[in-house]
Every structure is written in structure tokens, then in C-alpha cells.
Amino acid sequence: xxxxxxxxxxxxxxxxxxxxxxxxxxxxxxxxxxxxxxxxxxxxxxxxxxxxxxxxxxxxxxxxxxxxxxxxxxxxxxxxxxxxxxxxxxxxxxxxxxxxxxxxxxxxxxxxxxxxxxxxxxxxxxxxxxxxxxxxxxxxxxxxxxxxxxxxxxxxxxxxxxxxxxxxxxxxxxxxxxxxxxxxxxxxxxxxxxxxxxxxxxxxxxxxxxxxxxxxxxxxxxxxxxxxxxxxxxxxxxxxxxxxxxx
Length: 247
Ligand SMILES: O=P(O)(O)OC[C@H]1O[C@](O)(CO)[C@@H](O)[C@@H]1O
Prior knowledge:
Blueprint lengths: L1 E6 L2 H18 L4 E4 L6 H12 L9 E4 L1 E3 L10 H8 L11 E2 L8 H14 L5 E4 L21 E4 L2 H7 L12 E4 L2 H5 L3 E6 L5 H9 L17 E6 L12
Parallel strand pairs: 1-10, 2-3, 2-6, 3-5, 6-9, 9-10
Antiparallel strand pairs: 4-8, 7-8
The structure holds 6-O-phosphono-beta-D-fructofuranose.
């Protein structure tokens, strides 16, 4: 069963999500966090940074595993997810850099990258809490709609819808990488708790299908209905199609 927490707007969503993450870190200082990129979690990271600076939360023992990274991109490329995470989160908190893990997009040996990332996540005991955004087409990480749910880390061809959605961050649409490494759906489901953040009307269909649609790999996020500890924090616009279903 998915627990839905209603937020007034992006700021409220971010604060509520950051509350859940900081509670996890306070209760288990050496916890393993799965982290996401994209616009959705930026406000959550901002809030966590603020609380860190006030001395309310300490990341010194936390380990992190990021969901995804573009294929064939250098870590210091401003479009890479390595760069994104440093800029929006890691550079501002006291996390130990050796505890930070993002798939090695610059390594084009797919088998090596995927096997080593899966081993690291498994050796860490999987994530205590996995933070997710959701794509307009229901993707989680870069697990795109498909005929089957993926298992471990793999390299995917991005859909036109995702390329188009992500092109806002690039100068030209043809600059958006066509492939990406992503944690698999099974690995995401191995997390002990999952927190999804979603805002804006563009996410309304995906949020509805994730929470109330059939469980199908055509909407990868729908598998979260089968997890025992999922919280979705979403604003009113993202919940627009769920109105009749909310308590
Ligand atoms: O938060 P955004 O920018 O809408 O992106 C949603 C999802 O898409 C991705 O950025 C991948 O396209 C995910 O990492 C993210 O969770």
C-alpha cells in the first residue's frame, strides 16, 4: 500500500520529504540512502542542507547510492549526474566522499559498470531509504516503460519522451545523451523504505498510474504498489487525478 502525503506546493513537498530523510539519518546515522537527480528533489536537498548547517542533521556516517547516470559522460561534465549531486547536495554537507556512489558514466564497459555497482549496493545491504522522482511516463531512475520489469543495474536507451523532457537542461536536444546507466527496478524494490517526490500537473497521470493503475512494466513506478513501505509526497497539481481516491 502506498501512503500518500499531500503537499501544498513545491516548498511544502520538499520540507515534508526532507523531514522523512532526516528522521532516517537521525535514527540510523550510518544509514544507506538511495538518491535521485532531476528537478523534483532539488528542494529536498536544499532543505536538508539548511538543517545540516543549523546542526540538526549529520551526514558524516551516511552512505549514498545514486540511481542513474548518463552513459559516456565525464564526471565533471556540468550535465552529468555526478556534477548535479555535488552542486545540489554533496558539496554542502559533511558526507565522506568515499561513501558517495554514482554509476560511472564515463566508463563505457557496460558489464563492468553494472556488475560493480550492483555488488556495491548489495554489499552495503541495499538502501535503508530510496528517494525517487518520477518521469512523466512513469519511469523511476531511468527504467523506462517496457515489457518486463528490470532487475539489476543496466544500460538503457532513453525514450523520446525522456529525451524531450531532459532537453531543457541542455543547449540543444541533440546534445541529450541517448543512453544511461540505471539501477534496476528489483534493486530499487530491495530498499527497506521508498520516498517518491512529485510536483506539478505534468506528473499527474504518472502519479495516478503509480498509485492506482494496474501494476505493469508499462508504468515502471506502478510496481511500488507491491512494496510494503512507500511514501509519495506530492503537491496538489501532481495529485489532481487522484482526488476521488484520497482519504
Ligand atoms: O524530477 P524531474 O526532473 O521531473 O525528473 C524525474 C525523473 O527523471 C529523471 O531525472 C531521469 O530522467 C530521474 O532521475 C528523475 O527521478
